[in-house]
Amino acid sequence: MTKLYTPDTGAPPVKALEEVDLCVEEGEFVAIVGPSGCGKSTLLEIIAGLQKPTSGEVLVAGKPVRGPCAEVGIVFQGDSTFPWLNTLENIKFGMKAKGLPAKEQEERARQAVKLVGLEGFEHHFPRELSGGMRQRVAIARTLVLRPKIILMDEPFGALDALTRLFLGDELLRIWQETQATILFVTHDLLEALRLADRVVVMSSRPGRVKRVVSTGLPRPRDQKVMSSPRMAELANVLWEELKREVREV
Ligand SMILES: Nc1ncnc2c1ncn2[C@@H]1O[C@H](COP(=O)(O)OP(=O)(O)O)[C@@H](O)[C@H]1O
Ligand SMILES: [Mg+2]
Fold first, then answer.
1. Ligand at shortest distance from the CA of 245
2. Pick the CATH number of 1-65+181-249 from 3.40.50.2300, 3.40.50.300, 3.30.70.1050, 3.30.40.10
3. Conformational region of residue 20, where left means phi above 0, alpha means psi within -120 to 50, and beta covers everything else
């Protein structure tokens, strides 16, 4: 798959993705790392059906993606909460659009609030929450729709290290419970190795799949696994690949 952005302004086109070829198994947890601007967000948006590839296609369960669909949920990079809605209303937004019964919306939203640790903030508006809390609202908003495929674009980017660890564990629990397939963009190599079955390293723009590393690490990835020689070796492999990409820019 290839993606070329052609600006209306007459500026030269930008090739964001070039011949990206990636197959993700059902139920897999795949992390994507790559230099800034290499097309990671573009890739997720194409998979979610929010952008069209210039050439090639994305198949979900064997069917080509033609637009957004309920099976694929996305947590956007940056703050994507609606400022005019409170926490509960934000979380209910997608369920409302889907026409779920009010009672079910309420139940699922309350459950999600608990899951992401926002109890007591149900009626706060985004401006009254910290960046990390707003990000949790956005995550909950996607999770309540129970998508089979969850695309996450640096979802923990704005969070402190402890919250990151905690939410990472929560995400793994949800992943195991729901058997969802997860594609997770992060710039944190250790986070990628802690969460994923495979880590995809992308080249600098135009983004290509440069290397796919199967971690083969046992779960749960507790402190013992995280400090094992195998972990250090994998982190080193990823770091070397990325370093080369950043240098070549
Ligand atoms: N909507 C858009 N219109 C034009 N160019 C875009 C658009 N979105 C992204 N780009 C360009 O495509 C490239 C990849 O961007 P992006 O997918 O956001 O990268 P990443 O998420 O890896 O940082 C960048 O050069 C960016 O400027
Ligand atoms: Mg991005």
1. 1
2. 3.40.50.300
3. beta
